[in-house]
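pipeline stage [seq->struct] | target=Diguanylate cyclase (GGDEF) domain protein | organism=Ruminococcus albus 8 | residues=380
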Amino acid sequence: MLGAIGFSLVISEYSDVVDNDIASRNYLQQNSIKLHELETDLCITINLGRNADSADNAEAIGSYVEKINYSMSDCRELMKKYEAIRKTGEVEKQYQLVKTAMNQYNEIVSNELLAQIDAGHFETANSIYFERFINKRNSLDDSLNQLLTVTNESIDKRYDKAEFNAKVLRVFFIGFGIIVLVLLNMLESRRKRIAKNLETAVDANEKTQQSLYKAMFTDNVTSSNNRISFVIEYGGEPVEIPAGEAMYFVMFDIKDFSGINFRYGTYVGDKILAMTVERIGDVFDDATIYRTGSDEFVAVIKTDDSQDTFTKVANLVERAYRSLTSDYDVNNSRVSVDYDISLVRKENPDIVDMNIHNQLKQAFTNGSSYTSGNCRYYKD
C-alpha cells in the first residue's frame, strides 16, 4: 500500500512537470511572438500616417488598428491561460512583475498610441513610440525572458526533486523483498520513460518555437516571404542602393480574386495563390518574392544600373504576364486569371523604404504604360 502511494506521488510529480510547466512556457513564447507582431503593425500604421496623406491610407490604417486590437486581445487570452496554471512561489512572484509590465504596455498602446492614431496625430504617436513605448516594450521583454528562465529553473528543480524521491523510495522499500523490488523497478522504468517524454516535450517545444519564428516571416499558403518580412526589410532604416546597382520592384495583383474564391471555392483560390508564386519564380529565378496582401505579390530584383537592364526586366515582366494568364488546371477545373502589374525602378543615389509599396500601388493608375499595355511603370 505504501509502495503504491509513493509510486503515485512520483508519477504525479513528473506528470505535473510535463503538463503544467511545458504548457506555461508555450503560452509565454506564443505571447512574445504576438507582441512582436503587434509592434510591427504599430510601425506600419504610424509610417502610413506620417509618410503620405493619411486620408489616402485611411482604410489601410483602420485595418492595421483592428489587427492591433485583435493582437492585444490574443495576448490577454494567453496570459489568462498562463495565470490559470499552478505555479511555484518564485514563478508567481516573477509573473506579477510580468503582469504589471503587461498592464503598462497595454495602457500605453491603448490610451496613448492608438488614441493619437485615431486622432490623426501620427507625429505625436511616432514620438511616443520612440520616447516611451520602446522602453515599456523592452521592460516587458526583460520580464518575460526572466519569467521563462524562472520557469526553466522550476522544471529542473521539480525534475531533480522527483528523481531524488524515486531514489529514496527505492532504498526505503528494498527491505520489503522481491515484490517491493519489482515495484521499484517498474517505477524506475516509468521514470525513464517520463524523463524521455519530458526531454521530447522540451525538444518539440524548441522546434515549435523555431517553427513559429519561421511562420512569422513565411506565408503558409505560398511559402513565399510574407508581409511582415517585407516590412522588416523596408520599414525600418531606409535601404541604400550601392553605386552601379539598381533595384526593380514588380507588383502582381490578381484581378477579382474574391470572385474566384466565390465561384470555385477557397481551395482553388489557395492553389492559384501558390501557383502564382511558382510561375513568378520560374521567370524571376533570382528574385525575392513577397506576399504583401491577400491577392498581391511583390518581386524584388537586384541588377546593375546599365541602360539595357530596364528593357530586360520589362521583357521578363511580359513573359511573366503570359505565364500567369495561362489557364490554371486546379481540381478538375480550368480557371482563367488576369493580373494588374506595376514596375518601379530604383538606382543609386535613391533609397528604398515602405513608400515603395505606395508607389507600386499608384503606378497601377498613374504610371506610364509599357508597349504591350500589360504593365505600368515608374522609372526614376
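stage status: PASS
auto-comment: Residues 261 and 318 are 26 Å apart (CA to CA). Residues 122-172 form the longest helix (51 residues).
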